[in-house]
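Interim report to the steering committee. The following record documents the input for DUF7282 domain-containing protein (149 residues).
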Amino acid sequence: MKLSCSQRDEASAVVSDTATVSLPTFQNAELSFRDQVINDTIVVESATLPDGGWVSLFAPNVESPDSNEYVSIATSDYLEPGRYDDIAFKTDFPTEPGECSADIIALLIRDVDDNRKYEFDYHFPGPDFPYYPGGSATALVTKKGCSSE
C-alpha cells in the first residue's frame, strides 16, 4: 500500500513524499453484511475479529453529496476475539432527499493499542484501523415503508 503525504514549505509550495506501508494481515478476519430492508435496526450477519475490536457502520455524507465522504452511524461495544452472529444496530441512516436507500459500509476495526478505546475515523484513522483483508463489506440498506419521490 502506498501513502502520500503533503506539507507546505515556507513559500507555500506543496512538498510531497510517498512511502510504502505494510499493514498486518489477518487471514481469519471475516465479515458478512448483506442488502436488507429495515425498520430501525441494521444487522451485520456475522463478524470474526481475531484480535478483538469493533464493528462500525458508515453511510454517505448527504450534506456533501458530491464528495466521497462517509459518516459514522453506529459502532458496537468492544468485542473480545472471536466470531459473532446477528450484530444489531438500532440506528437511522442519512439518505439523499427523496431517497429510501443508501450504501452502508461495515468495517471490522482492530484495537491496535489494546486500550479498548475506539480510536478510528473513516477519513483520518487513529491508532486503530480496519482488519485487512476481510474486514469490510458494503450493503444496500433500504428503509421499510419509505417511498422515493
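The chain has a mean pLDDT of 83. The committee is asked to note this result when reviewing the revised timeline.
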